[in-house]
Amino acid sequence: PLVLGIESSCDETSVGIVRGEHLLANEVASSVELHARFGGVVPEVASRAHLEAIGPTLRRAIETADIDLSELDAVSVTAGPGLMGSLVVGVAAAKALAACLNKPLYGLNHLVGHVAVDLLDHPDDEPARPIAKPCLALLVSGGHTQLLKVDDITGGITEVGTTIDDAAGEAYDKVARLLGLPYPGGPVIDRAAQQGDPKAIRFPRGLTAGHDMVKHRFDFSFSGLKTAVARWVETRRLSGDEVPLNDVAASFQEAVADVITAKAVAAAQFHGITHMIIGGGVAANSRLRGLLAARTASAGIELRRPRPALCTDNGAMIACLGAQVVKAGLAPSGLTIAANSGLPVETVVLPPAA
Ligand code: ATP
Ligand code: MG
Ligand code: FE
C-alpha cells in the first residue's frame, strides 16, 4: 500500500511516504535550534514552528516521492503520545488531507512507529526483513525510555519497563547544561566522551540493586545520576579545581549505556526473546550502540539498529506503520479522531469513534 504519514509529536515536523516497506520520501523540519537557548523543548515554540513548517514539508515530501495523491491508499498520523500543542497540528493537517482526498485516516502510536521503521532500513533492490515475533524494542529519546515486548507490530505491544523519572535523552540534556555545554546535549557529550576516561568517576547505576530490583527490575531512573554528576562537579568547583569535562562526560555516558544495555539484555532473556530493535535519538549514541552490540552478541540476541536518521522522530516511521496496519486490514480511525498526549502503548491504532 501507498501511505503518507505525518509526525509532529515533539519538535520535528515530518512527512514520510512509503510503498509497503519501501521508502519514497522522508522530509524533516526540526525546530531544535529555536529551543537551544532555553536548554529544552518549549511546547509553545514547538507548536508554532509546526504550524509554519507543516505545509512546506508536506509539499516537499509529495514532490520527492513523485506520486499522484489520488494513488494514496491511506493517510496516517501520530495521534500520541507527545506534546498536545504539537500533536494537534499534525492531526489537523492529516484530517484535512484525508478529507479532501477522500482517503482513510489512521491515528497511530508514535512509539510503535519507532519500532516499525526498521522495516524500511534495507537497500532498494532487497526485500525488507520481517520484524521477529516477538521482539524487544528499546526506545530511548528525549521524551521516552522504554522496553516494549512486541508480539505484533499492529496490535500486540506490552510495556516491560520504563523510566520512573527522567528520560535518557533528558538526562543527557540536563547534564550537558550543568557542564555548560549546548543543547541538545546528547551529541556534544558523546563527542566529549571520546576524549575522556569512562572509568574516571564511578557514577551510580539507578535501580540496579537491592529492593529496587524486586519492584523495578526492568525500569530506569536517571535523576539520581544527574544529581550525582551535579554534586561531583559542584564539589570540584567549590574547591577551586578544574572540572575534567571529558572524564565527566565519559563517566556519565558509561553509567547510562551500562544500565540501559544491561537491563535491555536481561529483559530479553527473562521473556525468552531473541531479537531486539532500538530507536529514539539516544539510539544514535556511540557507546550505547557499541556496548549493546557486544552484550546482545554474547547473549545470542540478534540486534537491529536502524540508521540514525530513521531512529530520530520522522514521518516515514508513521507511514511505514500505516502501511502495516492497512495490510493487516484494520479499520481506519476516521475523520473525528482527537490527539491524545498520553496515548498508551497498547493502542497502536486509534479505534473509530463510536
Ligand atoms: P520523543 O521522545 O517524542 O521521541 P525527542 O524529540 O526528544 O522526542 P528524538 O528527536 O528522537 O526525541 O531524540 C532527541 C534526544 O536524543 C535528545 O535528548 C538528544 O540529546 C538525544 N541524542 C541525540 N544524539 C545523541 C547521542 N549521540 N548520544 C546521546 N543522546 C543523543
Ligand atoms: Mg526531537
Ligand atoms: Fe520519538
From TrEMBL:
One of its GO terms (cellular component) is cytoplasm. PROSITE patterns: GLYCOPROTEASE. Keywords: Acyltransferase, Cytoplasm, Hydrolase, Iron, Metal-binding, Transferase, tRNA processing. One of its GO terms (molecular function) is iron ion binding. It catalyses: L-threonylcarbamoyladenylate + adenosine(37) in tRNA = N(6)-L-threonylcarbamoyladenosine(37) in tRNA + AMP + H(+). It is found in: Cytoplasm. Residues 23-319 form the Gcp-like domain. Binds 1 Fe(2+) ion per subunit. The keyword Iron applies. It is an enzyme of class 2 (transferase). Its main location: cytoplasm. Its EC number is 2.3.1.234. Substrate binds at residues 139-143, 173, 186, 190, 285. GO terms for biological process: tRNA threonylcarbamoyladenosine modification. It comes from the Bacteria. Its cofactor is Fe(2+). Fe cation binds at residues 110, 114, 313. The keyword tRNA processing applies. Required for the formation of a threonylcarbamoyl group on adenosine at position 37 (t(6)A37) in tRNAs that read codons beginning with adenine. Is involved in the transfer of the threonylcarbamoyl moiety of threonylcarbamoyl-AMP (TC-AMP) to the N6 group of A37, together with TsaE and TsaB. TsaD likely plays a direct catalytic role in this reaction. Belongs to the KAE1 / TsaD family. This is tRNA N6-adenosine threonylcarbamoyltransferase. It comes from Propionibacterium freudenreichii subsp. shermanii (strain ATCC 9614 / DSM 4902 / CIP 103027 / NCIMB 8099 / CIRM-BIA1). The lineage of its organism: Bacteria, Bacillati, Actinomycetota, Actinomycetes, Propionibacteriales.
